[in-house]
Amino acid sequence: xxxxxxxxxxxxxxxxxxxxxxxxxxxxxxxxxxxxxxxxxxxxxxxxxxxxxxxxxxxxxxxxxxxxxxxxxxxxxxxxxxxxxxxxxxxxxxxxxxxxxxxxxxxxxxxxxxxxxxxxxxxxxxxxxxxxxxxxxxxxxxxxxxxxxxxxxxxxxxxxxxxxxxxxxxxxxxxxxxxxxxxxxxxxxxxxxxxxxxxxxxxxxxxxxxxxxxxxxxxxxxxxxxxxxxxxxxxxxxxxxxxxxxxxxxxxxxxxxxxxxxxxxxxxxxxxxxxxxxxxxxxxxxxxxxxxxxxxxxxxxxxxxxxxxxxxxxxxxxxxxxxxxxxxxxxxxxxxxxxxxxxxxxxxxxxxxxxxxxxxxxxxxxxxxxxxxxxxxxxxxxxxxxxxxxxxxxxxxxxxxxxxx
Length: 405
Ligand SMILES: *Cc1c(COP(=O)(O)O)cnc(C)c1O
Description:
Distance between the termini: 45 Å
Bound molecules: pyridoxal-5'-phosphate
Helix content: 40-55%
CATH topology of the largest domain: Rossmann fold
CATH class of the largest domain: Alpha Beta
Number of helices: 16
Number of strands: 16
Shape: globular
Radius of gyration: 20 Å
Largest sheet: 6 strands, mixed
Strand order of the largest sheet: 5-6-16-11-12-15
Strand content: 15-25%
């Protein structure tokens, strides 16, 4: 498939390029001392992570520890209720720890171990990335420092407890708003001091090169499995696939299995309470080009050009930008990006639980809501949705805010 001069048959050979660019997006915009650390990781990724030994070990871990392959499930009752389009979900909710995040964390921490590092550093907002990192670090026996804003520590007590039980060191960040942005700054500052003994592990397909590439590649297993499983189940490809996009890691891995196929691809961002700035986190829909957290992409900016405040009912989606590859796939027209608001998300959350016996993460419910809309619009065919995680983490919030419907 060739679209706007991009040949998707050879896509992975050319994107990202050597500098980490997907077209004009991506790159590595960080302090010179950290540039060196990034080059070391890139080098290790292209040598160690492509070795037979590394690949074999990661495959074994995925099977024996994570419980992969996760299945694809047919949403039979929901499909019948909606009409004739058949809906399917890729079950990343059944991946160990309940979401797709462990796929790239196990890869990143395995790489750290092969590089001889003693420690991994990460930041976390709602705590999901922190828990996945703490899990991976415990598995490999590495030290783990998780930087977290004091405000987030107060709000996310169960995840803080999980990280500590798993042996991670949760570092409280008390600067500024005491949330994710400050935690990122604190983690980068710590990394600049300690990069000889540790690596920094980013939680999505964002940040400086090589992370958008590396995280996508570690998540590729989702798309690869889903494609083979779907063809095996039905004898053909899905007509459309859907995933939610925060930073964009679950979507990037899932989409990467289908880029060269005649399949419509949809990335769904959170519209939150509506299109007013501050009420959503739909960066690809409403943002403009800019540099943040070490990479060039499309972002939501305030009047000073800094990352704008964002909101979503799903804490995993409230990031003011998306990975550079998504900005590129949007511009070349291969992936369509659209939005789903809080209300549609919560309706889909209850609908999937009632009709199929699956309680989705609120993040994933954005993709389910769009899949339902798409089914009504298409009239015939099939839609495969990436169910990035399970909703157990969201129960308290849902019960408090929406009650039991
Ligand atoms: C963190 C998270 C997301 C958002 O992250 P992406 O990098 O955009 O995939 C989506 N779903 C779940 C369940 C999450 O935990």
